[in-house]
Automatic annotation (TrEMBL):
It comes from Nostoc punctiforme (strain ATCC 29133 / PCC 73102). Pfam families: N_methyl. Residues 193-214 are annotated as: Disordered. The chain crosses the membrane at residues 21-49. Keywords: Membrane, Transmembrane, Transmembrane helix. The keyword Nucleotide-binding does not apply. Residues 204-214 have a biased composition (Polar residues). This is Prepilin-type N-terminal cleavage/methylation domain-containing protein.
Length: 322
């Protein structure tokens, strides 16, 4: 009888699972597994982080290359209309009554105040030129009151254009990168035509036409004596492209004074032949500034992230000198 009860009880315990043996990992086994997991996962994570960081830098480099090329294309189209380009003599000397010592440095921003370019320590003129540009529907066929496209013709106006290197290495301006950017300034004059309408007669504050009536035998002497019509400008310096390098590899300058405008150790400078209205423009970007906040200076081991390009442009505008 007792044996029968033991058999029944044993059978019920087996069915209910109470009598099953409970097994698991020991503490040593868990520690060994964790160590092995760390040894395997840590290198994989570091590898993935390096891949992602490299991909991010390559994307930044590609973006910089595209933006530099777009900026050079824009400057190229602008310069093709040039009638005169200032070399270093014109850009670095102030207005002077002496023909051989005069320049326009104190006639343009930043010495003449303009929005976004009022500090001469961070905003420096590099490429300054006069151009003759087409102004569509700016001249009435029969009268200056005509403004509709059916009764108007196109006219031409002179503009003074300046490109600047604006540095921001201390990060004082949080809108832009901690390197430099290129800004553009323009003063447009009126269309010189009898029936110039409101579109053609519009002019920017401070504009004066090219100084062809000044003393001097050379065009350079005359143009270096240009002076603005007012103390300050209402026009602003508009950013063309950001993430421009402030450092560069040490190399031989492509030209010398007065043809070299700016510093070859920066990311934006030009070689200008004022007599031939010819300019070679150099731009170097800094892709590292897009992905990090320090160690932004040019170095041989990071030179691939400092893409550079240049253009050579002959001004083809026409200057009415008579």
């Amino acid at each position: 009888m007792i044996n029968s009860l033991k058999f029944i009880l044993s059978t019920q315990l087996k069915r209910s699972g109470i009598n099953k043996t409970i097994s698991g990992f020991t503490l040593i086994e868990l520690l060994v597994a964790m160590v092995m997991a760390i040894l395997i996962i840590t290198p994989l994570m570091a590898f993935m982080i390096n891949i992602l960081d490299g991909d991010r830098k390559e994307q930044a480099k590609a973006t910089s290359e595209q933006e530099i090329q777009a900026a050079l294309d824009y400057i190229n189209r602008d310069l093709q209309q040039a009638v005169y380009i200032y070399d270093a003599d014109g850009v670095t000397r102030n207005a002077d009554t002496t023909i051989t010592n005069s320049g326009i440095k104190n006639q343009i921003p930043p010495l003449k105040s303009a929005t976004s370019c009022s500090d001469s320590t961070i905003c420096k003129p590099i490429l300054v030129f006069w151009k003759r540009q087409l102004i569509a529907d700016s001249v009435g066929i029969n009268a200056s009151t005509e403004t509709s496209a059916a009764n108007t013709d196109d006219g031409f106006a002179y503009s003074l254009v300046a490109y600047y290197l604006i540095t921001n290495t201390d990060g004082a301006n949080s809108t832009w990168s901690k390197e430099a950017r290129i800004g553009r300034f323009e003063l447009r004059g009126p269309v010189n035509a009898t029936n110039a309408n409101t579109t053609g007669s519009a002019t920017d504050s401070g504009f004066n036409p090219p100084s062809l009536n000044k003393n001097g035998t050379l065009l350079k002497d005359k143009m270096d004596q240009w002076q603005a019509a007012s103390a300050n400008y209402s026009n602003q310096v508009v950013t063309l492209v950001d993430y421009i390098s402030t450092t560069a590899p040490s190399s031989t300058a492509p030209c010398s004074s007065p043809n070299l405008v700016g510093s070859q150790t920066s990311g934006f400078f030009a070689c200008v032949d004022a007599n031939d209205v010819l300019a070679q423009v150099y731009i170097r970007g800094n892709a590292l500034a897009r992905v990090q906040n320090n160690n932004l200076a040019y170095a041989n081991n990071t030179k691939t992230y400092f893409p550079s390009s240049s253009i050579r442009v002959q001004g083809r505008g026409f200057l009415f000198s008579k």
